[in-house]
Give the backbone structure.
Amino acid sequence: MRTVIKNLRKIYTSEGFHPLRSNLLDTIKIYSDCDIEILNGYITRIEPAIEAADSDDVVDAEGGIALPGFIDAHTHPIYAGTREREFTERMRGKKYEKILAEGGGINYNIARTRAAGDDELRTVFLSNALRFARNGITAFEAKTGYDLGDGELRLLKILNDLKRTLRQDIRITFLGGHVLPKGENKKEFIDSVKTRIINVAGSGLADYFDVWAEHIAFTNEEAEAMIKTASEAGLKVRIHANELSDFLAVLLLREYDIASIDHFDFFNDEQVELIVSKGTNVTLLPLTQFSLGTENYPDARRLIDADVTLSLSCDFNPGTSYSANIQFLAQLALLKCGMRVNEILNALTINPACSLEMQDLCGTLEIGKQGDAVIMDLPNLESMFYSIAGNDVLYTVKKGNVIYRRDHDHQKLLKA
Ligand code: NIG
Ligand code: FE
């Protein structure tokens, strides 16, 4: 199959197979007036005036821009039940922590997810994958974490089945250590998580294990017990930490290899120093702070200046961030976290590709990588930041296939 993307004003991309940090995070290559040829899923040419005759598909970018498909390295897309009532209660002052302790919050989804049939869970996942495609996301990480009993294995099996048919690339994370379900005994729960970790590692159903280290979830010692089991069983680890306070114990970072530390809204110098010395990726999730209404945005500038490798992600989930609007995420990173335009693009593409070990396939637009691109109806990259809370995605292209196309027929506005 041959696809040619034509009529592009600009292409913005990094190149290579390594995460970017420090000054390099602020560098981007720009092509002007070039087309992209994708043969059997992989980019074969980026040059002016590629002939479109005898191609199977011609994507007319209408003078817009192409970026590498966005890669979201932190999502919670499989669950049952939504929490709009809780959201409005929180905006009236009720605390997230209190709602969780009273049996709401994540517990609300646990009850519904356990009761849901496979078809319902599949439908929720696919509608979220479509939401991601509409926002230009061509690869993402998918976490479980809303069953938190033996049904976690069911969620992992459903994700593995979907992975075989979904065009978007996914990585699967067993979020077995999300929170303690209401009414359960903590010690017994942690023991059951450890058993499940060993099963999951043995069955190959997940790429990563995840745990939330925070005072309302698991202490550093409790998180460590689970991380130790995962590491010994050969399951790589990503963690949720420092969303509500700089809770993460440096000892934990020192002792274990952690693929990504996510949230990190609060941090201290000792943590930053250790992260830099280990080269650990940090994934910032400012949409979560926006949605919580607390707006404790992470100081990305300080992290970049300290040489931390940064990625940005939506943290799409039914509780703290019911949004996959990458464009708004990018705007928050610019307006609230002190990041720059090129840094943000790299933190949405090559860096998360590396953090998910997908850098050989995607994360940049260059010959030999997959033809994963987002075409935006914008004259330049800066405009993506200017159009507040918009979504200017015109096409999302995955391995040369258009997986989303915006309907933008102006004629519908006009009376016949
Ligand atoms: O990433 N921090 C923990 N987990 C999710 C929230 C999950 C929820 O409230 O449903 C997060 O913010
Ligand atoms: Fe999360």
